[in-house]
Amino acid sequence: MSPAQKDQKNPKFGHLPLSTSGPQETVLTGNALLRTPYFNKGSAFTNEERDTFKLHGLLPSNVQTLDEQVRRAYAQFQSRPDDLAKNTFMTSMKEQNEVLYYRLVMDHMKEMFSIIYTPTEGDAIANYSGLFRKPEGCYLDIEHMDRIEGDVDQFGGKDDVDVIVVSDGEQILGIGDQGVGAILISVAKLVIYTLCAGIHPDRTLPVVLDCGTDNEDLLSDELYLGLRQKRARGDRYDEFVDRFVQACRKRYPKAYIHFEDFGLTNARRILDKYTPKIACFNDDVQGTGAVTLAAIMAAFKEAKIKWADARFVMFGSGTAGTGIADQISDAIAQETGKSKEEASKQIWCVDKPGLLLKSKKDELTPAQIPYAREDGDWDQKDHGDLLSVIKEVKPHILIGTSTKPGAFTKEAVQEMAKHVDRPIIFPLSNPTRLHEAKPQDLYDWTDGKALVATGSPFPPVKHNGREYEISECNNSTTFPGIGLGAVLSRTKLLPPSLIVAAVRALADKAPISNGTGSGLLPDVTDVRDISVQIAKNVIQQAVKEDLAQEKDIPSDDADLEELIREQMWEANYRPLKLVEDDEADAFARGEAGAASHQRTGSVNWTARL
């Protein structure tokens, strides 16, 4: 155990249910133990453990360390011919040995992040039915709503699940409707929760809500595994979602629900419906907004812009764009004391038809309506394109979520730079080919004055002999820490104030804020430390608002950080303790979460590690 790990084991908090100190209890022996991913150590079981758990004859004789296993696994990973093959290899490893899987990714985070998550996970989702080898998570379909409660009940007892990620597959990672393949985005998001915030992987539940699909390629694919029918909508769809939510609340009352990749007409509506009732989150609506808001806070500090004066132009007003606008208006309201309605007047939203106007209300989504402008204010002004709006508004901040490559033209950017000293420009559309502008151009067109963050990774740019870091607005620096804070406080709800508290923690870690660089956001490699600070802010705000249901939360900052670290899962092998069945909980019996040995069976399609 490294010194850092020893520091995290605080005797004050070793008694907590999610403590990562001490041995893990299990009733499993022999092959049942080897088939349970959260207990399996493969060749790293010690000789004493092989005696106790009857593993002799089931493993090669040489006992290896986790580091040796990681070296072998990395060599196998590198031998795969392409990114999709590497993704499939990693999926197989995860289903055999969770500790090894997470340790390998943590040791090679920069290289592997794009393999296990976007963009490669998008390819895996698009090919889900063709690549299918075994089920992962909970599959619910709209044709059997009467079974939802029983299906959800299979993954543990009432205290066994902390985070549920659910998708209906309508709008996946920029590749559209993927039907039942959405289970993989739920799985991938939970992997990020574990990697970036130490959410226990055996205490999570990925879910897909199969409502059918409007993807004609899937409907005509004889191998497609989901419902072969058009996507359900309307009251029946709403009943399906509600039955799922109610079943989860009944079976797992402490669980935090994360909605992922729902379609434009449903994402905001569902979030608005359940936010006043349960602790829930939508990364597409809130996560992108939160990380963007953190970058804005850091940029404001550098540019000395006051919240009350700031003018924002949002180019692209779909789920992501309006979600960012919502986060910004929440922050304006909190920082200035303005009403949410007044705060929204500092934001001008532009979409395909141009500036959003109230006269077009029948064509606007519910999320767009609060940002529509009075027609009378624009009767004699051009407003059909971005440049015209920039000329009139003279924004401090320009944000792009349009997926329209090159939309931030030289003329538009230089028009903006005429009116503000430090133009803040965030081309956030991804992947890279869809960016509204290249960071190098933004620095060249503004003579190095721009403050830039992007939606995909870019290398540093150089201008007039100086190098500038390009921060990526990566949601993975934000939503895991928010989830961790929600889990450890058992907050009843997740109102905007808790998210703004999280954003402040992230903004404080920006290199440009603390003099360690020019980036507007911290690097993803520092994400676990960042998650501690985000979780701390979320917990403290939940306590302040009387939303925390967990008892005895320390008020001292240092003690609270130790409480958080003690309960963050680490990719290290812990000792195992054999117990009798009558002493065992679901975890000890190998029945917890989606990785239960009773559901996975033997995995044999890749090399034993």
Automatic annotation (TrEMBL):
<dbReference type="Pfam" id="PF03949">
    <property type="entry name" value="Malic_M"/>
</dbReference>
<feature type="binding site">
    <location>
        <position position="260"/>
    </location>
    <ligand>
        <name>a divalent metal cation</name>
    </ligand>
</feature>
<dbReference type="GO" id="GO:0004471">
    <property type="term" value="F:malate dehydrogenase (decarboxylating) (NAD+) activity"/>
</dbReference>
<feature type="compositionally biased region" description="Polar residues">
    <location>
        <begin position="597"/>
        <end position="609"/>
    </location>
</feature>
<dbReference type="Pfam" id="PF00390">
    <property type="entry name" value="malic"/>
</dbReference>
<comment type="similarity">
    <text>Belongs to the malic enzymes family.</text>
</comment>
<keyword id="KW-0560">Oxidoreductase</keyword>
<dbReference type="InterPro" id="IPR015884">
    <property type="entry name" value="Malic_enzyme_CS"/>
</dbReference>
<dbReference type="InterPro" id="IPR046346">
    <property type="entry name" value="Aminoacid_DH-like_N_sf"/>
</dbReference>
<protein>
    <recommendedName>
        <fullName>Malic enzyme</fullName>
    </recommendedName>
</protein>
<keyword id="KW-0520">NAD</keyword>
<feature type="binding site">
    <location>
        <position position="430"/>
    </location>
    <ligand>
        <name>(S)-malate</name>
    </ligand>
</feature>
<feature type="region of interest" description="Disordered">
    <location>
        <begin position="590"/>
        <end position="609"/>
    </location>
</feature>
<dbReference type="InterPro" id="IPR037062">
    <property type="entry name" value="Malic_N_dom_sf"/>
</dbReference>
<feature type="binding site">
    <location>
        <position position="284"/>
    </location>
    <ligand>
        <name>a divalent metal cation</name>
    </ligand>
</feature>
<dbReference type="InterPro" id="IPR001891">
    <property type="entry name" value="Malic_OxRdtase"/>
</dbReference>
<feature type="binding site">
    <location>
        <position position="474"/>
    </location>
    <ligand>
        <name>(S)-malate</name>
    </ligand>
</feature>
<dbReference type="GO" id="GO:0046872">
    <property type="term" value="F:metal ion binding"/>
</dbReference>
<dbReference type="InterPro" id="IPR012302">
    <property type="entry name" value="Malic_NAD-bd"/>
</dbReference>
<dbReference type="GO" id="GO:0005829">
    <property type="term" value="C:cytosol"/>
</dbReference>
<dbReference type="GO" id="GO:0006520">
    <property type="term" value="P:amino acid metabolic process"/>
</dbReference>
<feature type="domain" description="Malic enzyme N-terminal">
    <location>
        <begin position="94"/>
        <end position="275"/>
    </location>
</feature>
<feature type="binding site">
    <location>
        <position position="261"/>
    </location>
    <ligand>
        <name>a divalent metal cation</name>
    </ligand>
</feature>
<feature type="active site" description="Proton acceptor">
    <location>
        <position position="189"/>
    </location>
</feature>
<feature type="region of interest" description="Disordered">
    <location>
        <begin position="1"/>
        <end position="25"/>
    </location>
</feature>
<feature type="active site" description="Proton donor">
    <location>
        <position position="117"/>
    </location>
</feature>
<dbReference type="GO" id="GO:0051287">
    <property type="term" value="F:NAD binding"/>
</dbReference>
<dbReference type="InterPro" id="IPR012301">
    <property type="entry name" value="Malic_N_dom"/>
</dbReference>
<feature type="domain" description="Malic enzyme NAD-binding">
    <location>
        <begin position="285"/>
        <end position="543"/>
    </location>
</feature>
<keyword id="KW-0479">Metal-binding</keyword>
<dbReference type="GO" id="GO:0005739">
    <property type="term" value="C:mitochondrion"/>
</dbReference>
<dbReference type="InterPro" id="IPR036291">
    <property type="entry name" value="NAD(P)-bd_dom_sf"/>
</dbReference>
<feature type="compositionally biased region" description="Basic and acidic residues">
    <location>
        <begin position="1"/>
        <end position="10"/>
    </location>
</feature>
<dbReference type="GO" id="GO:0006108">
    <property type="term" value="P:malate metabolic process"/>
</dbReference>
